[in-house]
Design brief:
Length: 107
Protein backbone atom coordinates (compact mmCIF):
# COMPACT_ATOMS: atom_id res chain seq x y z
CA UNK A 1 0.00 0.00 0.00
CA UNK A 2 1.41 3.40 -0.94
CA UNK A 3 0.53 7.02 -0.45
CA UNK A 4 1.57 9.57 -3.08
CA UNK A 5 2.33 12.83 -1.37
CA UNK A 6 0.99 15.72 -3.46
CA UNK A 7 3.56 17.96 -5.12
CA UNK A 8 4.26 21.13 -3.12
CA UNK A 9 1.96 19.96 -0.34
CA UNK A 10 3.60 19.94 3.08
CA UNK A 11 1.48 17.23 4.70
CA UNK A 12 4.62 15.26 5.46
CA UNK A 13 8.19 16.52 5.72
CA UNK A 14 11.52 15.63 7.28
CA UNK A 15 13.76 18.08 9.09
CA UNK A 16 17.46 17.54 8.58
CA UNK A 17 20.37 19.75 9.56
CA UNK A 18 19.63 22.36 6.90
CA UNK A 19 16.90 24.98 7.33
CA UNK A 20 14.74 23.78 4.42
CA UNK A 21 12.58 20.73 5.19
CA UNK A 22 12.55 17.74 2.84
CA UNK A 23 9.14 16.68 1.49
CA UNK A 24 9.44 13.12 0.10
CA UNK A 25 7.33 11.94 -2.83
CA UNK A 26 5.99 8.64 -1.51
CA UNK A 27 5.25 6.89 1.77
CA UNK A 28 4.88 3.14 1.23
CA UNK A 29 3.80 0.45 3.69
CA UNK A 30 5.18 -2.94 2.64
CA UNK A 31 3.66 -6.05 4.20
CA UNK A 32 6.11 -8.86 4.80
CA UNK A 33 4.99 -12.12 3.13
CA UNK A 34 3.80 -14.90 5.44
CA UNK A 35 3.89 -12.75 8.57
CA UNK A 36 2.01 -9.99 10.33
CA UNK A 37 4.94 -7.60 10.13
CA UNK A 38 5.32 -4.62 7.85
CA UNK A 39 7.74 -1.81 7.22
CA UNK A 40 7.54 1.73 5.94
CA UNK A 41 9.60 3.07 3.07
CA UNK A 42 9.91 6.81 2.42
CA UNK A 43 10.86 7.47 -1.21
CA UNK A 44 12.17 10.55 -2.99
CA UNK A 45 12.55 10.67 -6.78
CA UNK A 46 15.00 12.86 -8.68
CA UNK A 47 15.53 13.50 -12.38
CA UNK A 48 18.83 12.57 -13.99
CA UNK A 49 19.67 16.27 -14.41
CA UNK A 50 19.74 16.64 -10.58
CA UNK A 51 22.08 13.69 -10.00
CA UNK A 52 25.10 14.75 -7.96
CA UNK A 53 23.96 18.29 -7.14
CA UNK A 54 24.24 19.61 -3.58
CA UNK A 55 20.51 19.32 -2.78
CA UNK A 56 20.25 15.76 -4.06
CA UNK A 57 23.37 14.65 -2.18
CA UNK A 58 22.11 16.32 1.03
CA UNK A 59 18.81 14.42 0.77
CA UNK A 60 20.62 11.15 -0.01
CA UNK A 61 22.82 11.56 3.11
CA UNK A 62 19.82 12.56 5.25
CA UNK A 63 17.93 9.45 4.11
CA UNK A 64 20.96 7.24 4.82
CA UNK A 65 21.25 8.64 8.35
CA UNK A 66 17.53 8.29 9.04
CA UNK A 67 17.52 4.68 7.84
CA UNK A 68 20.58 3.91 9.97
CA UNK A 69 19.16 5.46 13.15
CA UNK A 70 15.42 4.84 12.97
CA UNK A 71 13.92 3.06 15.99
CA UNK A 72 10.85 0.82 16.24
CA UNK A 73 8.60 3.79 17.03
CA UNK A 74 9.20 7.08 15.30
CA UNK A 75 7.72 10.21 16.87
CA UNK A 76 7.10 12.70 14.08
CA UNK A 77 5.14 15.35 15.94
CA UNK A 78 1.54 14.93 14.91
CA UNK A 79 2.22 11.60 13.24
CA UNK A 80 3.57 8.49 14.92
CA UNK A 81 4.52 5.53 12.75
CA UNK A 82 4.95 2.35 14.70
CA UNK A 83 7.07 0.16 12.50
CA UNK A 84 6.85 -3.56 13.15
CA UNK A 85 9.89 -5.82 13.01
CA UNK A 86 10.45 -4.89 9.37
CA UNK A 87 11.54 -1.38 10.32
CA UNK A 88 11.58 1.73 8.19
CA UNK A 89 13.79 2.87 5.33
CA UNK A 90 14.37 6.07 3.40
CA UNK A 91 15.44 5.86 -0.25
CA UNK A 92 16.41 8.24 -3.04
CA UNK A 93 15.39 6.94 -6.48
CA UNK A 94 17.09 8.40 -9.56
CA UNK A 95 15.21 8.73 -12.83
CA UNK A 96 17.65 6.56 -14.79
CA UNK A 97 17.53 3.58 -12.40
CA UNK A 98 14.34 3.88 -10.31
CA UNK A 99 12.69 0.79 -11.80
CA UNK A 100 15.59 -1.45 -10.67
CA UNK A 101 16.04 0.30 -7.31
CA UNK A 102 12.39 0.13 -6.26
CA UNK A 103 12.14 -3.68 -6.52
CA UNK A 104 14.16 -4.35 -3.32
CA UNK A 105 12.11 -1.69 -1.51
CA UNK A 106 8.87 -3.50 -2.30
CA UNK A 107 10.07 -7.01 -1.44
Amino acid sequence: MGHRIAVNQREYSLQGWQKQKVSPDLLVCVEQPNSDSYRFSVLETKGEHLKGNDGTEYKRRLFELLTEHVKSAVNAGELTLEAASGGMSFRMLMEDSWSQEIVPELN
